[in-house]
Amino acid sequence: MGAVTDDKECSTFLVRHAWLSMRGVVAEALDQHGLSVAQFASLLILDNHPGMSVADVARAVSTARQSANEMLGGLERAGLIERRPHPQDRRSQQIFLTDRGRARLGAARPAVRAVEDRLSEGFTAGELAVVNAWLSRMAAATSVDGTSVGREEIPTI
Amino acid sequence: MGAVTDDKECSTFLVRHAWLSMRGVVAEALDQHGLSVAQFASLLILDNHPGMSVADVARAVSTARQSANEMLGGLERAGLIERRPHPQDRRSQQIFLTDRGRARLGAARPAVRAVEDRLSEGFTAGELAVVNAWLSRMAAATSVDGTSVGREEIPTI
DNA sequence: GCACGCTCGTCAGGTACCTGTCAATATCGC
DNA sequence: GCGATATTGACAGGTACCTGACGAGCGTGC
């Protein structure tokens, strides 16, 4: 059988391959719900942190403001989110999930969860904790920002 | 301190974040050697498997043939690889590292290795083995191809 | 007040991918 | 041998990102 994983040299490329593969699986599970992976991530984080601005979402999903804005445009056209002017800051706008958005997310979330659980099947909780710690260390390699400005703790997806 | 890793919900996005971060770090280490991350991956795999075709490289780095061809074009213009017509198959061409390419790779490889080692510092060999196993499992999630055609075992980067 | 620096959302332009397609060639079934 | 199918490298065209810049607005220091 064609053993595929020979990336013995660079763990970076193994991580990339894992990401591509997981993205594919998750995307497949998501397009039954009419969502892209990035849109799902945004809905997820907006559900946990209502009232974020476009720039906040961009930072959270670690993409450019421009890209986040375009993707949120799709969500807005689909009626899953709505933008409201920020009461204090007149340049930014707050983003909220609509009822449709919450319903869509509620339908998609267990599908993704199921897929991810199936993928990690067979690993013990302790092993998954190690994996989590390692990935977190990797993810923190370049997070030199530290710009937790005014608002409270915005997690990065 | 602003704890960043709160992707408690979806490990997929944690993997993505890890990949983006590692790619950034590796890219930083590589552009001192005038290489992009994808180009480095290609040189790496071409060094281990001389004579691969464009399509082989594309499969190995899991990208489209078109993208691989463009990227290899850059490497060719830089004089790091050369294409030769395949002796048996007249539609494909074999790709080999030039001496310059080998030298460039030889210079870049320890830099990347050092960066990756520094990132994983503090984890035991057993823990890293677990991480490796988990990532390999994830990477294999969509590898339903099994098209190890004629040639011998081509690893995927 | 007011100049300075920063961030907001947005516009323009570029880059790096992808899919879809094509002729030429290889490979397999018969 | 010979047709059906698949593969290779290349050609378009589209998409999804990014960077760079802009005016508008916010915050701080003087």
Explain the overall architecture.
The structure is a homodimer of 157-residue chains. Chain A has 157 residues and is mainly alpha-helical. Helix content of chain A is 56%, strand content 6%. Chain A has six helices and two strands. Chain A has a two-stranded antiparallel ribbon with strand order 1-2. The longest helix of chain A has 21 residues, at 99-119. Chains A and B meet through helix 1, helix 2, helix 5 and helix 6 of A and helix 1, helix 2, helix 5 and helix 6 of B. Chain B binds a DNA duplex (30 and 30 nucleotides) through helix 4.
Provide a compact summary of the structure.
Two copies of one chain form a homodimer. Chain A has 157 residues and is mainly alpha-helical.
